[in-house]
Amino acid sequence: MKILITGGAGFVGTRLARALLERGHLRGRPIDTLVLTDQFPARPEMAQHPRVQVRTAALLAQCEALREEPFDAVFHLASAVSGECEADFDLGLRSNLDSTRALLDALRHRTERGAAPTCLVFSSSIAVFGPDPAYPFPEVVGDSTLPMPQTSYGTQKLVCEHLIADYTRKGYIDGRTARLVTVTVRPGRPNGAASSFFSGIIREPLAGEDAALPVDLSVRHPVGSVQSMVRGLIAVAEASREAFVGRSAITLPGLNVSVQEMLDALEKVAGAKVRARVKPQRDERIAAIVANWPRGVVTPRANALGLQAEASFEDIIRLYIEDCRRDNPQALRGLDS
Amino acid sequence: MKILITGGAGFVGTRLARALLERGHLRGRPIDTLVLTDQFPARPEMAQHPRVQVRTAALLAQCEALREEPFDAVFHLASAVSGECEADFDLGLRSNLDSTRALLDALRHRTERGAAPTCLVFSSSIAVFGPDPAYPFPEVVGDSTLPMPQTSYGTQKLVCEHLIADYTRKGYIDGRTARLVTVTVRPGRPNGAASSFFSGIIREPLAGEDAALPVDLSVRHPVGSVQSMVRGLIAVAEASREAFVGRSAITLPGLNVSVQEMLDALEKVAGAKVRARVKPQRDERIAAIVANWPRGVVTPRANALGLQAEASFEDIIRLYIEDCRRDNPQALRGLDS
């Protein structure tokens, strides 16, 4: 089978591509070709892989060509992130809404010419939820919580969820949406996402650098490893359609933790010296965005697919350390041993 | 002040225009000019009114020009109806989604050049709600019910609600959404809406014609007079912003009735001979769409604005008969007296 990953050069996209190549099959069929589209270049080992095709251009510019290309499954991960969407409203609408519609219409074009509906897995976000001035804000959100996004990013994700549900209802695609929790620990540099610090406060100290903490220690948030999110995306692709009926999305499991618990775990895994590199430095812009995010998730539908969050935040840090030992030992230069 | 009504030649648009001209003011300011845009021509008495400008063209084609034109308030009623959207997917996306976005961007264009955010009242619909396979379908829906539309029309309305909420949050507009219940009794001919029969089973017998009833007598649905919906749209335009916080829309009050109760009311008001002109003639396509609609509404937020549904369906029929006596006595040729 032939699979498309949009945003295929990104952090989650690359890990998903690796996982698919390693398992070699999806939905009971062998994977012959993996097409990675992204506005940024893919990693060299991906570009050189015999079963991978890399296409570097904005998704919106690629959709016209995609109309004539058959895919058996599409993982639609390409997205501008929350901070970018707040800073540049048009960028968010173009990258997150217009691009998704163009992709949906490309897939629909094939169905209207007799092809079976393509399986599309859309990565949405718990950013579809906002605080609720009409009722007490729920401590945890789930698939039946009324989404009231308070960011453009969350709005665009929610809008795409509903468009995907309607294209699916019409038989144009076989669409499924997974709402990802905040992926932690992301490697590399801080990005434009307001959630970037959730990785930074672990990643920077492990690399021997100071990290700014823009919010209070009491802030609670659901987080998950990239491994766990990749497992979720694959499980959602392979689930029966019935698992999705009646809701626009399945929220993937997350570990509901406070920043305090995250830093305690860091100290336990890496020591007090590493922990001390996190310096409180409140950022009102970030704090305001994060205050509007859920403090936890409850995910019975995802759990019914066999998905579970990590048991502790220490596990999440250890997964990151293992990754770094293999891929980029320099990222651990802040560790004593 | 200068007011724009999109869909201004339609049934609700025309009645809203009349009501605004009669009251002469909105939000505490006198109404100087009313601009009616519609793809269909406006009624002659509107086109000839000294305070009314009529522009006949598709909304999407008019939005570029609207970018340079200041309005103090906009009532956005233009929309393809539910039956049309199911039959022609592209028409629905263009008429309901693309046109709304172009209108929002036209209003945003002015704000970005220093103008105050324009008050925009969007007419959404209770079609944003669908049945709930995950939970028992609520007998009545309200502003806190999770919308899961099961039609393209409902999806597009919901998507626009969320875009309007985000444009408002960003300060580009002062947007408010009213979810209308099914307007009954609509005059004229049946239209492409799946809800068309809710008017037809009253209108046709009063005009001396047979009417097909495509659903069971037990079907329940919230309905309201056009007078009540117009009052609702004006109240929503004049409400404080705080009345909307935390929800994407305010559901307007409706009378929750069964088809049986509607026909009993018809017999009471117009006699058994008129009632007997309604003939059961099941239409599976219509019945399937209607089965996915709410059976009633509960509207505490609208009630807090002073809005109330009619007390009985007989009142709704009598309002229609009064209208016909004034505007079109021919429509009552089925009445004995």
Name the descriptors.
homodimer; 337 residues; alpha/beta; Rossmann fold; UDP-galactose 4-epimerase, domain 1; 2 domains; 3-stranded mixed β-sheet; 14 strands
Quick structural gist:
Two copies of one chain form a homodimer. Chain A is an alpha/beta fold.
Outline the fold blueprint.
The structure is a homodimer of 337-residue chains.
Chain A: E1 2-6, H1 11-23, E2 25-26, E3 29-30, E4 33-38, H2 44-47, E5 52-56, H3 59-66, E6 73-76, H4 82-87, H5 89-112, E7 118-125, H6 152-169, E8 173-180, E9 182-183, H7 196-206, E10 211-213, E11 220-224, H8 226-238, E12 250-251, E13 255-258, H9 259-270, H10 272-275, E14 278-280, H11 284-291, H12 300-304, H13 313-327
Parallel strand pairs in A: 1-4, 1-6, 4-5, 6-7, 7-8, 8-12, 9-11, 10-14
Antiparallel strand pairs in A: 2-3, 11-13
